[in-house]
DNA-binding transcriptional MocR family regulator (Kribbella antiqua), 838 residues
Amino acid sequence: MSVDELIAQRDRARQDYEALVAKGLKLDLTRGKPSPRQLDLADGMLAAVDRAVSADGVDLRNYGGLEGLPELRAIFTEALQVPVGQLLAAGNSSLELMHDAIVFALLGVLPGAERRWADEPEITFLCPVPGYDRHFAICERYGIKMVAVPMTPDGPDMDVVEQLVAADPQVKGIWCVPKYSNPDGTVYSDDTVRRLAAMETAAPDFRIFWDNAYAVHHLTDQPAEIADVLALCAEHGHADRAFVFGSSSKITYAGCGVAFFGSSPANIEWWVSHTSKRSIGPDKINQLRHVRFLGDADGLRQHMRNLADLIRPKFDAVDKILTAELGGTGLATWTAPAGGYFITLEVPEGCAREVVAKAKAAGIALTPAGASHPYGDDPADRTIRLAPTYPDLAEVEAAITGVATVVRLVAAEKALSTT
Amino acid sequence: MSVDELIAQRDRARQDYEALVAKGLKLDLTRGKPSPRQLDLADGMLAAVDRAVSADGVDLRNYGGLEGLPELRAIFTEALQVPVGQLLAAGNSSLELMHDAIVFALLGVLPGAERRWADEPEITFLCPVPGYDRHFAICERYGIKMVAVPMTPDGPDMDVVEQLVAADPQVKGIWCVPKYSNPDGTVYSDDTVRRLAAMETAAPDFRIFWDNAYAVHHLTDQPAEIADVLALCAEHGHADRAFVFGSSSKITYAGCGVAFFGSSPANIEWWVSHTSKRSIGPDKINQLRHVRFLGDADGLRQHMRNLADLIRPKFDAVDKILTAELGGTGLATWTAPAGGYFITLEVPEGCAREVVAKAKAAGIALTPAGASHPYGDDPADRTIRLAPTYPDLAEVEAAITGVATVVRLVAAEKALSTT
């Protein structure tokens, strides 16, 4: 493209951007929040319990029951691929459980560990990128060093992972969102899961933080299946390697769901040695609400299909608009995930921050550029996370159309600045 | 008393004890649990929310609202003596908040601290005895050294406390249950609270863990009032000294209540620097249930009066039976608290463990002897905690009558063994 053509392109994009700003939009694609209509589908929860007694006759209003309601754990055992006896049901947030797992490992000796992580000279976690900013924030809060590992269409680049974990005993963990990964929608291949389970690690207390946040969050009729990480770890002689996390936050109510922790018997015992000092038991009535509302694993599946019917049109709209506006321009690529909550938009190198800034100036709030990387630092400045679930369909359409305009403008300005 | 008289007394007690064992009782006075009838009084909670929207129009089903519902904090601000803006409402357990306060202090630098507690050579907490075993269990789990401080009728012996905190910069905290203390029912005098707030501590990051668990749990028509610890700390130039904890576990539902954390603005900011990495917000719908059910501070007071009507007869029965069975014998003393959940029974030195063991053999479960002391070690082996709220009145009467029999037997055997 000649400089004149570039200038003409930029000028057209500028006009479009000025028109966009003039609209005075106020749209928010920042966080993976369920929409009010999604939450409406779970309103049966509110009146689901009129007598708070468990299946085995326990008065759920009182203290106790640290491991969570067995009948609730039974509903999620298949989806999370954790035997009921190794699956605990807790409070309203799996993020809390991930945070606490790190805290407990810092302050208590993990099975297989030589010492508390707080007594190690340094702790390093591997962070497949793009990844989830709240994972990275926990590491940063507790001074855990993060090393980025590139994602592939099959999950983290296992050649890199295997080399890093074999070389350094201070590498103690890896963050994984194995199904419909946040934010690029990747589903880990069976071979990736097997290699994670089988690999030799220099640290005897290496842990996979398996955040299976989107285990049942399918958007197509072909639900993705991933390999059973706990079984594979045990099979390869690393039974205590994986911590499995999940929650119903994006199934029932985002703020009032139930979170799950699953692991090996030794890890569960270690976990309870901490939580039994901390807790008088989870809110068992809220757990019973989930049992009454979801019924069983089939009920869970049907509820997720109903939710997908609300979410799918928004994901389709994003893909359709980006294709119409940016397809064939070479200015961007984007994912079309089969589940989960996010779409990753890749823009030309050095443009992501400016796209987010100009979108903001036009009233379209996006997740900060860099958020998908440790320390908020995307070295290529390319990756933008789009979260289309919360706004209604018309708002998603307006926001993505605006984002495409911004991408055209920023890319043209960038191209001109380097000619 | 002559040896013959002692033998006769022991033989009578033995007969009574054998008759007790023959009854095959199965009674439990171990934990401070609300009775089913108490919980029934809160059953209005279950259907209290049919539309989950806050006073200011926020959809409470979704993520967010880390500080908790303002309208709930407003109900508890007076009872907990914490300004609404410095009072956070969280999940279902204040024990969790106390645990997390210690964890956050171990892993993050407290306002006024020179370093993280995890980086200190040693951390010591003062433990007024008798005290609460779950406080001690948290310290023990994290290797925090505990030093017992005797209780007086006005609270901890402040001469001892002042000396210990002034002498050693590793003394970083003290556990306090300032109103109707667990287990002896003591109400801290204004002078005790003032001295706690005013005293000079060698540690710049000393904290009072102010577990105001029984703030509104009165059993008489003269509610105990304690001094305002946050205000006194600020007044004496130690604004960041106190962490205030409270909960509705013994107000509404024990397992599904709401817990509170209150402190200085600097401490709240520090707290949120941790919790904002951990949490996506508390269960706000359960908080709204509390708002709808309790209404306001007057509603809370009325509800507590209704609960007291169920609890008071049990405390009265304990006092009446112990007076009838042991009064004037010199074999025991016991508290007659004006609120809270516990009665402390003091038996002759060296007898508490044996009383608990023999009670157990007769089907009466008591809190383990020593539980009210750090490391489960009551050096005098004298203190037994009685928790009369959970069993029904007839069971309490049967259990306490049995306990009195056991005390007579163990004391007689002890007296004989030392003649």
